[in-house]
Fold each of these.
Amino acid sequence: MLIPPNQIKISLITAPEFNLEYLWWLTILFFVLAVIYFIGVFVIRNNINTNNHRTKDKKIEFSPMINEFLFFEDSNSKEEKMNYLNLKVTIRELIKNDFDRNVLTEVLLDLRKDLSGESQSVLIKLYKDLGLHHDAYKKIGSRKWQVVSSGIVELTTMEVDESYGLIIKFINHRQSTIRKQAEIAVVNLREEGIKYFLDNTKFKIAEWQQLKLLDVLRHKPNYTPPQFALWLTSTNTHVVLFSLRLIKYYSQNGAEQSIITLLKHKNRDIQAEAIECIKDFHFVSALTTLKLVYSKASHDIKIAILDAIGELGTIADVPFLENLQLTERHFNIKGKVIGTLNKIDPERIMPTKNISRSDFYKTEPNIDSHYVEDEVISESIIEEPLENIVVVSDEEIIIETVDVTDNGNGIVAAEEELKVAIIEEDCIENLEEQSDNIIDSTTINTEVVTNIDEIDLSFLPHVHHETEWVEKNKIEEEKLELKQHIDEELSIDFLPLVTAEIPIKAPVSTFTQEEFEPLFELDDDYSEHKKVIETAILNDVIPTKEIESIDWSSIIANNNLNTTIEVGDDLNPFDSLEENAVFVANFMPQEELDTMVLLENIAELGDCRELTILHEIANNNTSDLVIERANELITKFSYETPRPSELFSGENALAESVFTDIYNLADQETKLILLNEIKSIGDEKEIHLLESIIKTASEKLVEQATEALEYIKSQLEITEQPETETEERSLFEVDFELELNESIKRRIASNDNGSTLFDQLCSLSNSLYKKKNG
Amino acid sequence: MDSELFGVVLEYINFVFFVFTMILFTLFSLMAYFSTRNSIHYRNKNSFTDISKIMASPLAPTITIIAPAYNEGLTIVENIRSLLSLQYVNYDVMVVNDGSKDDTLQKLIDSYDLEKIDVEMDPDWKSKTVRGIYKSKNRAFEKLTVVDKMNGGKSDALNAGVSLSTSKYVGCIDVDCLLQPDALLHVVKSFFQRSKKRVIAVGGVIRVANSCIIQGGKLEEIRLPTNWLARFQLLEYTRSFILGRMAWGRIDSLLIISGAFGFFEREIALAVGGYDTDTVGEDMEIVFKMRRYMHDRKEPYTIEYIPDPLCWTEVPEDLKILVNQRDRWARGNLETLFKHKDMLFNSKYGRLGLLSYPYWFFYEWLSPLLEFFGFFTILLFAYLGILNWEFFFMITLAIFLFSIMISFYAILWDVYSYNQYRKTKDILILMGLAILEPFIFHPIVVYAAVRGNYKKLFKIKSGWGSQVRKGFAKAS
Amino acid sequence: MSKTVLLADDDQLLASLLNFRLKKGGYVVHHSANGKEVKEYLKNSMPDIIVSDIMMPYCSGIELIDYVRNELKSNTPIIIISSAGNEQNVLTAFELGANDFITKPVSPTELLVRIAREVEK
């Protein structure tokens, strides 16, 4: 476009030459291409349109035939049957052509998505009858990945079970689409597919794929998922992540330790998912690890951790949060810290500020129910778990800190004697009802114990509070007891800290915070306690089951006050505790209680290494409840990934009665035979089985069992008091000086961990702590 | 002597122009090739997946759609209603009223039964003051949040939304866009389908909705616009999205996501500080920032592009508004490129620095300017009688045919992939437009781009300071 | 006297199938593939029951309910066919006066039972 080069004389510098001819050729090329495209557009349009038309026509042709097939009923007349057969022949003729067959397949696949119930199965049957799945098999053999994938999709949709073996080899295919479709097919076709997939997949599982796989599982009728905890140890990070999600979705709360360990995983998604699980399943024992992980976590993980602490945390976590409140710079996190603090301890609400954003919706609507629920619990704590708390708190204090004891324990020691006396009486009074209610008191005990367990060593002052709180409850309790037995004046002299009788008289069901407060009108020194108790009220750590009503009568009887609380709210299916449990102030035999405490400790902190102890407990104990709980824990821990278990020794692990399983599965006849067998060859391992039979089984069996039991006992020359339930009750004496009865002594003697149950407990929890803190 | 030197200079100009054109041909041919590959792949991959099933999955991530609104009182209620009825479980809609001067907020409050709620804001946050946050009292609209803030421009409004959202992903859309009901499903799929790379953003096609039949917030029938300007734009959009973005998507070098339909991972959008409030090209700028951020952290990442028609918008039918729009685009382009000028030919950024950025620099920004000045040079040379007519004619013809060819190719792919315009007449019209475009529509676009650049550069030089913020008033 | 069913569904295959089943069940069926047709039909005659897909071109099932109840002031029973995950729409449908709904995938037998129940009322 510029000056022709030849017009200008160039002396020194010359511009590079270029040949215009090339440009000319290019122009022609472009022109030709443009023309081709122009024609191409119309050719393509035409193709698409004719194809669509043909398909549509075919579909219209096929549709009535398919209808006939789908709704053909055997009961129809002969003529219709002939029709049906003819139709089948026609259709077979029709689909000899490839195009037609493809259209028919398409139609069937379409309908498969829209139909359910019987029609769907008829449709699938028709698909196979017409041999269309052979086409799909051919597709799988194709060299084009998209054809292979569509073949797999087809077989999956039409539930061609036989293709499972063929498709399974594609789950580690290099081509991602084939692989993904194969994964879905494998999981879809057979119930065991998911196991195979998780075991064998080597590739990463994209989020979308996880979503689809879960979707397949969700829509499987009558599906029983495997224990996904098995795959938490997978070397494929994505399998771990997916397993965690499945665990959460199917609420499989049996893998506590593994999940807590995953908090430390390098992958953020896994961390986040583990936190979700912990929150969902209420793994209170994870709090220490949560706090540990916190400092190095990313923003969103931090917020998730705070959220979890808000759900699970206790007053013991307050210093940690307060510390964060000072150190955290990021606005959102800081807001979350404050929100969490408020959730755990509402007293700390900043007077000038509103509740932070993320908690705005959550706290308000729930507050009322929290009040009621937690009140129930704190009330019952006050009433019930006396000696247990004493024991446990004492030992915790001893184990954990020295200075804690100074303040709290002094009181405890002083009060203990008195209380013990009271309880002893009470125990005897209430022994009749005990078996029904043990569960309840145990739960509460557990909670108290748990709270104490959670305390991190760095938060000693709060351990102190915690203990004091327990002490406080104890004191309250003693007060109440005292009132029952002694005069009121005495109590006032004795315990100036506690207000006299308000708690009993207040109508519990209408408690609000204000009404509740007078209960703890304490000296200034004890404002701390007040706060603590209120926290307990607002915290939803405690209740773990549906509580329908609480019967206070046994305690309040003297005051002629009957108050019933009705709470219809459940928080968490925490354990296999019975629903609608009724609280009655009641006490377990000391021995049993101790063991339960131990079990709960194990439940919170233990892992499969505790199996030995559990088996031992299960075998040596007399109480159903204890055995049940122990067995439960055994099952729970057995699911967990086995760890190097130096504590394991073969004989102990096998201590469970060999008859238990068989017995549970057997029918009446077999049971009788079994009992006979037990009588002849059984030893002490069988005792608890027999006892449980006596309690639960039918008359005939009981008879037989009693006989067997008696026999075995005589064989073993058991010298202690006979252990059948009724006798035990009448002869049972609670010994609060921890003079162990002979059976316990013997058990302990066989155990080289300590000489008394008390020591044993102490050392046990000690070792548990060590384990937990690494 | 002088004329000799002048001649050599002219000859060099000739040569540079020729090379520039050749590179342009090569680039566009490559783009056509890559986009074809990508289209076929996309088609194969998605031909048999049924995404609607996923709607109710418990693993579905949260998405917040952020719709900034400025003086949208006329249409806001209807537009929001259609946003609230998308097919997805886990999403919410956040309308940010950017200090509208009309009754936008009041209309929203009345129609959706809104009430003010208390939310604590980050005191260090740099956006304009938020006056209030509203939620609906009616549970049917619980997905809706309305944020009322002082006027601060589109970027500022979007930033407010991004920062107030708690979702994993945020979608920034124009409030007057029409989203297909399954749009979010596609978006989630795009975010989720990669296992090796982290998808930090997802963009999509913008389709021209002029003259289409829309009923109750749903697109019922697709029609070719009746307005000529809109038709030209339709052709331009088709070419740019079907060929351009598809190709850049293929080689993972997308540098722009339309502000009308763009989804981001919130964490990263926040990490880079959200939208830049100092530019009118904020939608491009944030992608630059997010890409650089990921590059600097050496994390494998990608930006996905969905070719399916999910977002429909009305393009300006008025010449003046169109020129203003393009003027703004040119300025945004310049600002963004200038801000990230260190990326040019910087091998640290891989393909971005060596390919994407130079493309934007030379062919999106520089080329209109060259064309503009080239045109006047030709006139001048012709007047002076020093024009090489043969060369001029040849190269013009080549470029002209090339542009027609590329347009035809885009139409071909559009027909092949979606075949949305049913009438043969419509296709013929589009092809006719492709032939006319270089003479009618293209000069307009070039003029607007030059005007934008002139304004921007001139104002910087004369130190007039920042330009008057126009908000983002839409023509309506 | 057999009852009339208006079947509004844009999915040809499914519609034809349901059509077939309903006819076999003893109903007179009128089928429309889009909202416009449905409205046109309803202007002239009112069936004994309406079965409508929730997603249809030109007039969604929701609009159809609104049209029948509020404009035609008819109490003809309406059964909605919805796809999974569309719970919000189903709620709206009920608010507007739908009598029953059935989710895709559809069991034709179930649909027949539901229709029979509504018609008996």
Note: Chain C is about 45% helix and 20% strand.
Amino acid sequence: MNKENVNFDNGAELDALFSQARAEQPALSDTNFTKVVVNRLPTDITRSQQRTLSFDLIAVVLALIGVYFFTQPLTLFTTLFNTLPGSVTLSPSVFLIALTTSLALSAGAWWAVEKKG
Amino acid sequence: MLKHNPKIDSLDDAVLVELAVADNNQTAYAALVERHQSNLRYSMRQLSNWNEALADDLTQEAFIQAFKELHRFRKQAQFSSWLYRIGYNVFLQHSRRKQLKTELLDEHQAETHASNSSPPHEDQLHKKVAALLAQLSPERRSVLHLFLHRQNTQKEISVIMGIPLGTVKTHIARGRLELQAGLKAWPNTVCLNNHE
């Protein structure tokens, strides 16, 4: 039996302990673990995401084509521009509404990216 | 039954990721799992106070999440670091979900699982290190594991864990002090069995 005595007095001993643990790290590979992981993998996850993305892109392109042919883009832009208010008074209620809207949009974006994706 | 494919096994991580994403190639992903499971399982054991069953569950979850997020992996990054970050997040989510009082619960679980695991003398050193790390908060525990065990630089840890460099430095400075204090509280001399 070969025993190594280690005194833990300062930082060097801490490093020595971790160094020894690193040197003696066990190999924990086993085929069964890999098999369990592979069996639990969702099927077609990547493909379905790509398909969803493709549908989104097609929808956007079709919408843009529709807007181009069935409306007058310049008129639409002018109309949209005219709807913007000339000035904004930042009252507490307006501030609260803006803050709430901003938070809701952020939460929605986060949910879309983190949960749905 | 998973069969080893020498061609697949010899490919780089980045190529295997590409294959797994483009062709939904599970054999390629199985090769990644085979290649990286040992390190991640060990890290999860260190983070979970050597709770082997919990660590393996978290590792499996990490690999499954990694598979779902594989298209987000950037070739410039190291797959092992990217995978560790996912594993750490899985561990953190678990800790928060269970509202773990990590030290106490982990200790209890470690004792529970110790009986049906590998012979105690083989893991004694690693269990002691894990028990020492269990004194720290989950984030600090992970930083110290990366710094002292995996020997990542402070900057690498900052990137892997997605936290500011200053926070990493603080964790290392305070974590080391906490670990040293923890060591002093132990018996003065600890016998580490190398070979029996």
Note: The interface with chain B takes residues 1-11, 13-15, 17-18, 20-22, 24-31, 33-38, 40-47, 49 of chain A (CB under 8 Å).
